[in-house]
């Protein structure tokens, strides 16, 4: 089952969810590690290049993921045993995660292209710079990038705990629906 139904997520939604999760977690970890690298440290030049490339891949995946989600709003239906407040919190966290990931992608792009150089999608393609930023604005974008990253990690952790709570405490299908089509 490739597409979503009223009862279950399809492989497309499941795959995009987990690829996004792994990329976001990996980019966060690499980002935290590389900001403390010195000029002579291994990875000083390579890690930023990989971070930018995978960040652009994440951006390329998030656009169709957002379109897919908006086109399939309400699928699958919330499990009937969930109360309105729980459904509201769930939708709010999901929406906030989307927003924060797009903030991360946008701020990362602006930091990368601040001097007018294109963002490199590995050695495959270049994403041209649209604006040039002063050093003060680069610093602001760096802070936004950092704070949005931490906010994503906190919300994703809560999201994961909630999924496990639903699986082990409430014993419902919330987590199972994101592991394979039902």
Description:
16% of the residues are buried. A hairpin with a 3-residue loop joins strand 1 and strand 2. The model has no long low-confidence stretch (mean pLDDT 93). Strands 1-2 form a two-stranded antiparallel sheet. It is elongated and about 55 Å long. The protein is mostly helical and 182 residues long. The chain is built from four helices and two strands. The chain starts with 10 loop residues before the first helix and ends in a 12-residue tail after the last helix.
Main sheet, how many strands, which sense, barrel? 2 strands, antiparallel
Oligomer: single chain
Q: State the end-to-end distance.
A: 9 Å
- Helix and strand content put the structural class at mainly alpha
Broad shape: elongated
Mean pLDDT: 93
Please write the string of helix (H) and strand (E) elements. HHHEEH
* Annotation, overall tally of beta strands: 2
**Helix count, DSSP H or I runs of 4 or more residues:** 4
Low-confidence stretches: none
